[in-house]
Amino acid sequence: MVYVDRCDAGRRLTERLPALSGSGVVVLALPRGGVPVAYPVAATLRVPLDVVVVRKLTVPDQPWLVFGAVGEEGVRVIDEDMVADAVVSEPERLAVTREQGELLRRSAARYRRDHPCRALDGATAVIVDDGLATGASAHAACAVARARGAVRVVFAVPVGAYQPIRALAAVADAIVCLHTPQPFGSIRLWYMDFAEVTDLEVCALLDSAAENQPVPRRSVPSGTGVVGAAGI
Q1: How far apart, in Å, are the Cα atoms of 180 and each of 40, 134, 154, 164?
Q2: Fold topology of 6-51+111-228
Q3: Cβ 168 vs Cβ 154: under 8 Å
Q4: Model pLDDT for residues 49-70, shown as the tens digit of each residue
């Protein structure tokens, strides 16, 4: 299964999510690539759209190796097995976490601007991305949704690698993945058009979604959580 572009992937994903329409549902997109996938999902289901901002933690000098992720609400997901296998020292780990934490704060401020976080108290959070390769970002996003008060977390993605999708069952209440090719390769292989999504495009889609959805201010205070996960 190859998608024309992210919008096409979002439309196809929506066909598997009709039961999630209605009040009490919020779609959370992982920026940047997840936003154009999530936009048609939220529009078709007629539910609010927000972002859940996370940053991957990669091994110094080996950026293709991911040992975890940080997310809003102080969430950290660490793959201790990868830390040990890649021999990441504690000073290196802390330095990468601090750097990515600062980039996360900047990104969140850039995307949200005048839009407050969507309230998730008692809600079902549908987390959407354009693909799942390692699972670190997905694990962190699920933890952020829980920290914001979501009582049910659904992770929805057009394409994903089999093992990370399977591992995600430990943190998500339900997973919707349209395609789990083996071998997986990379996410871009499953899109005809996989052009880079810009911050301007993300902000434009969020603005458009907000025009038709009132934004209740959140009442859940920021918290801090650390999640250990093997094989993310």
Answers
A1: 22, 13, 17, 10
A2: Rossmann fold (3.40.50)
A3: no
A4: 999 999 999 999 999 999 999 9
